[in-house]
Design brief:
This protein has about 180 residues and is mainly beta. It has a single domain, classed as Pnp Oxidase, Chain A (Roll). Strand 11 and strand 12 form a beta hairpin. The chain has 4 helices and 14 strands. Flavin mononucleotide binds next to strand 3, strand 5 and helix 1.
């Protein structure tokens, strides 16, 4: 096999496809914001912690710094176009859930709403924020997880049915719709 060097600034493009989330937050004056993120990972199961990396100029990040709550929504293939609309740069205070024609639902533990068209959602409280290069790492504690009943089978995401979206880069995504199991 021959190998070639990739531009360092694009190193993450070979760490792909990446799970993609839509993060909902609220500003101090209660305005709802939503935006997609694919720099995300679980970091602890006890306590349940999840991280995402955001450019500090994003409204999402500014809301997280100030109000310290978020909902992480897991989108499926069905809402790819809507997800793309939430990624547009709207002025501060514009509700991207409404712009995308998605449905917001009241959360139980936090102020930001969850998105009804999601496969699953996690209500989270910001645990800590770390400065990391041109992104900042936001670590949240998961307080509640809701999942569509048909989205899980035997305790795993039922990918044959619900097709999560994985980000390849730019406008390209992979639809996670089949599983491969290790041989005995
Ligand atoms: C699929 C996808 C994944 C993205 N992932 C990230 C990410 O991980 N971190 C980030 O800072 N921006 C990411 N972005 C860009 C933001 O979603 C985008 O700049 C958005 O307008 C930010 O909105 P806000 O200012 O309302 O928070 C991503 C965009 C898309 C379409």
């Amino acid at each position: 096999m021959e190998f070639t060097d990739l531009d360092l600034g694009n190193f993450y493009r070979v760490l792909a496809p990446r799970p993609t989330i839509i993060v909902t937050t609220v500003s101090p004056d209660g305005k709802v914001n939503a935006a997609p993120f694919s720099f995300t990972m679980p970091v602890s199961s006890k306590p349940p912690l999840i991280a995402l990396a955001s450019v500090p100029s994003h409204h999402t990040y500014q809301n997280l710094e100030q109000t310290r709550e978020m909902v992480i929504n897991i989108p499926s293939e069905d809402i790819l176009q809507e997800l793309w609309i939430t990624s547009e740069k709207f002025p501060q205070g514009v509700n991207e859930i409404e712009k995308a024609g998605l449905t917001q639902m009241p959360s139980k533990k936090v102020k930001p709403p969850w998105i009804n068209e999601s496969l699953a959602y996690m209500e989270c409280q910001v645990e800590r924020i770390l400065e990391c290069g041109d992104h900042n790492l936001v670590i949240g504690e998961v307080l509640k997880v809701g999942v569509r009943k048909d989205a899980v089978k035997d305790g795993l995401l039922n990918v044959e049915l619900v097709k999560p979206l994985l980000h390849l880069g730019g406008k390209d995504f992979v639809v996670g719709d089949h599983r491969k199991t290790v041989d005995e």
